[in-house]
Amino acid sequence: MVGPSTGGPNLGDAMAVAGTMTQGLATVAIRRNPAVTMLPMVWLAQILSVVVALPLAQHLGDLSLRDYVVAAGFGLGPMTLGIALYVAGSALIASSLSALIGIAEGPFGAFWAWIGVGEVPTTATVIGGALVLAAVIGRVLLEKEE
Which runs of consecutive H residues, i.e. helices, occur in 33-77? Predict the structure, then answer.
């Protein structure tokens, strides 16, 4: 996630680290407080996301209507369902296991980009993704036996 970049600003690396840390904090908070109503938390997260992202959206007006429809469909469909399932599942299993399963999002994201839009992953991406998935599956199977 953080390493040699293509020459872009380091702000992206800092945001990736901050996103990972906040995801971890959210996972632990969900597990420690399973009775908390999550809808207000989701609204707060969305509002904070807009506040952080809006200053970085200089070219928001350059998008076509199709781009907006695709983004809205992605946000209302797979993102909403994925987060809802993650939150529901995080309240039921150990936060460490929940975070580990969440790590599988990276390899699956590369896979769907390959299948969906033909973005062929590099050999290093395939090897890294296979290692991550093997670790996640192995840990889940070990957890199941205990």
Answer: 38-53, 65-74
